[in-house]
Amino acid sequence: MLPLRDMNPTRRFPILTYLLILLNVLVFLWELSLSPAALDAALTDLSVVPANVSRNLLSLETILDVIRSMFFHAGWGHLLSNMLYLYLFGDNVEDRLGRILYLVLYLASGFAAAFAQVVIDPTSPIVLVGASGAISGVLGSYLVLFPGVRVRGIVPLFYIGMWSEWPAWLVIGLWFVVQLFNGVASLGAASAGGVAFFAHIGGFVLGMILTWILMLFVPQPPRDYRQQMLYERARRYPY
Length: 239
Prior knowledge:
Blueprint: E1 2-6, H1 15-32, H2 36-46, H3 50-53, H4 60-69, H5 76-97, H6 99-120, H7 132-145, E2 150-157, E3 160-167, H8 168-186, H9 197-217, H10 223-236
Antiparallel strand pairs: 1-2, 2-3
C-alpha cells in the first residue's frame, strides 16, 4: 500500500515535523543549484561514505557526515517519498513523545541506520544519503505507539490503484518485511548502489526499541483517555 492518510489527529501542532520537512526541501533545492560535478564532490565530502566511516568510526567528521547525510536526497522521488512518510507518521510520534524526545529519536535512528549500512558493507565507496533511516525510526515508533490506527492509501493492482484502509501494524509491518527481504537479497551486492535496505532496518529497529524505553519514563495518556481518542478518531473519520 502507498499510504496517503492516517486516521490519527494530533493534540498539538507538529512544528518540528514540519521544520524537518522544510529543511529537507531547502537542502534539496540547494543540491539542484549545483552542477553535477559540484554535487558529486559535495556529497562525497559532506555525507557518509562507508569506506571513510569504517576508518574513522567515532570521529567528529563522521558524526557531522551522518547528520548532514540525513538531509541530502538523490532525486525528487527519493525526497517526496521520504517526506510523505514523515508527514503522515511523524506528527503523531512528535505529539506523543514531545518535541525534544522526538528529535532525539529521529537523530538516533539516523545514526543507527548509517552505522547498520556501514557494518554491512564497510568498504563501499558509495555515498549514503537521505532521511530514510531516520524516518524508518519514526515508523518503528509509530508501530509501537499506534498499531491499531487506520491508514488509508492506494493498493496497486496491475495498472490501476484501489483505495483501501488497513491498520497501521499491517501497513508498517509489510513495509518492514519488504525491507528485510530486499536487504537479505542484496547481500553480496551492496556495493552495486541503489537502496540502502539495512539502513532502513537499522533505523526501524532502533526506533522501536527507543520508543519502548521512552514509554517507561514518559507519562503516557491514561487508558480511558486513549480509548476516548480512538472513539474521536473513528467519529472524525467515519469513511
